[in-house]
From TrEMBL, chain A:
The complex is composed of six subunits: RnfA, RnfB, RnfC, RnfD, RnfE and RnfG. It holds the Pfam family NQR2_RnfD_RnfE. Part of a membrane-bound complex that couples electron transfer with translocation of ions across the membrane. GO terms for biological process: electron transport chain; transmembrane transport. Its EC number is 7.-.-.-. The chain crosses the membrane at residues 12-33, 39-58, 65-85, 91-109, 121-140, 203-223, 230-249, 255-275, 287-306. InterPro entries: NqrB/RnfD (IPR004338), RnfD_bac (IPR011303). It comes from Novimethylophilus kurashikiensis. This is Ion-translocating oxidoreductase complex subunit D. It comes from the Bacteria. GO terms for cellular component: plasma membrane. Keywords: Cell inner membrane, Cell membrane, Electron transport, Flavoprotein, FMN, Membrane, Phosphoprotein, Translocase, Transmembrane, Transmembrane helix, Transport.
Automatic annotation (TrEMBL), chain B:
This is Ion-translocating oxidoreductase complex subunit C. HAMAP family: RsxC_RnfC. Part of a membrane-bound complex that couples electron transfer with translocation of ions across the membrane. Signal peptide: none annotated. It is found in: Cell inner membrane.
Amino acid sequence: MDRSPYVTESPSVSVIMLKVMLALVPGIVAYVWMFGSGVLISLALASVTALVAEAAMLKVRSRPVMPFLLDGSAMVTAWLLALALPPLAPWWLIVVGTLFAIVVAKQLYGGLGYNPFNPAMVGYAVLLISFPVLMTQWPAPLAIAGAKLSFMDQWNYIFNRVLPGGIGLDAISSATPLDTLKTQLRLQHSMESITSAPLFGQFGGKGGEVVAGAYLLGGLYMWQQRIITWHIPVAFLGALALMSGVAHVVNPEHYAGPLFHLFSGASMLCAFFIATDPISGPTTPRGKLIFAAAIGVLTWLVRVYGGYPDGVAFAVLLLNICVPLIDANTQPRVFGHPK
Amino acid sequence: MILDFLFKPSFERGVHPPQFKETGRTPIRRMPFASRYTLPLSQSVGRAAKPIVTVGQEVLRGQPIAETAGYVSVPLHSPVTGIVEDIGLHPTLSGEWQESIVIRAFEGASQEVLYGDPVDVDALTPEQIINAVQATGMVGLGGAAFPTHAKLAAPKEWPIEHLLVNGCECEPFLTADHRMMVEWPQHLITGTKFAMKACGAKRALIGVEDNKPDAIAAIEKVLPDDGSITVHAVKTKYPQGAAEMLVKALLGREVPAGARSYQIGVVMQNVGTLAELGRLIPRGQGFIERVVTIAGPGVSKPGNYLVPIGTPLRFVLEQAGAPRDAVEVILGGPMMGAAIASLDVPVTKAISGILVFDRSAMQKERGKTHPCIKCGECVNVCPKGLNPSTLGMLAAKREYDLMAERYHLDGCFECGCCSYVCPSNIPLVQQFRVAKEIVRERQAA
């Protein structure tokens, strides 16, 4: 069929997905550098699971398999989920999470373009609720870990839950800075004594802040490539910084400052890679601002007052529910109509 | 304003397609004469003209060969000296066969315009100008093909304040208006004065995209001293040349949805239309040839050609160096133009550009369609503030009435910005065209 326009500037969906994955590479490199190579195993596991699940579901739904498999969206979901999970979690945890993300959150809703919830965050939330203990076993930053595991050791631990002799789980794992801060504050420890522990770095957690910085770099690349606009990262990080900043100024002993929040947990991953998922988010610039700012506020509330150490996943999912409402109320003014 | 240098007036959103305007640097050339010309009696909005010649009759270049059939109708003039060979059905660009006059050119005849009735232009009243405009057979050359005299004669209850002259030419590749502004600025000013007098406008503003500084300079040199006509650089952005967008850029006002521009005291004319009027009315001649941009990767001699109306498209392409086995041919610009199926049709008054593409190159451009990922790029570029993403999803569900009632489908003027940026390659404009047609039919029923 002939159709105007006969010129186009848009990169295809596949190119967009490829660039998102490229933008994640600095973060992955930093992750390996700071926490060890286990995350590569999670990434591979999640990718294979996602592609197999996507292909199987497309087959079951009688949709063309290759075109959709090649659009890259399943891989992006897999990578985001893998990066959000503890890298030394047992293999089946990653497989279950990915299956849930692809099969239930994405394909059962109609596949690419039709999922109301961010698939990676659905997978994450399901795992967090179902396997809370496994989901809090984070590796300690290599800089302060009691023991270092080789790649094969990590492989063995992920698939067989076997650690080399003489190394206990405590030597290689630790609570996250967000978690530590929350529990220690509840024990009436002072902010200064908590954050001077070796687990904490310059402004976030040791190691974690480097990874966050690398995500930020990747995010800026996506912005420069016009894969994302500034609205969601700025609104999310701005709201998070504002909430934590105000609280910090009012009571610095009880509330960590904005830099800590921006560079801890999944803040940067959320700002550039998770909240920016177009499908489960609003379409208009104004809608994106509201959506992301609300995620920022909710994330802070969950972190400070909630029962979970990080609030990104729940904040994103809650706001996914609000998207139709946000969209309905943020349509641009139509040309030639009164304001 | 000083800040005009930094912030050229424009409209919100829109896109920046690559320009491909190399043809704007070379002068307008005359196309050689073909041996046979086909003139459809209907080349504009409104009633078809009525033939006033008979088969076998000899006609002079410039001689009227068909007369108006009512008010919204324009006459036709012979583009060549020759003999009327046939009056009957012939294929046209729309694909329909239409009543046309076919003239065989006399080889070797001087193709000077021999027919004309010079007039004292200063003595003309507004009504006489409007009649003179109609007598030229002029239609809007920007592509709308609305009879120019009818557009100048706005209803009396709406006094006209501003005449806006559209020299944006925002479509890629097209440079016909550009060359006319550079080469015929005096004609443009003369035509603008006629149009002002005809519609009663006290002020005329010529809007030119700032990628044509030579055109702006050429016009500035010949502006009248009284300041009644001014030229304004507007931002180079697609679709700056859409009527509503230019009104917004030049006057800062929006034409209310559903209203006509004369209801806010504005009449708009294309620069080419007015330049032609400025050339033709003083000589009392008819509109028999127009400037057409012929460009694209498929032609070896791209440029702006003065093409007699009725010239066979195949002949035009041969002259411009398009390969014989060509090709994908688009009439108009690449953003809003239409591909044609046959080359055995004549050039008509509304054709501003003929673009020739390589078939393989075009297929690569298109690629495959993905589902909408709601990225919102289309919302960010729609100059009318519509939500093409939502409209597209409704179109896929055939919710045409909902599109019209709640999502302002009628505001879409099919500029193509949404399709241009869509990463999922969804044929949004086509969907909206179909939807509008269906809504129109339902409303008529």
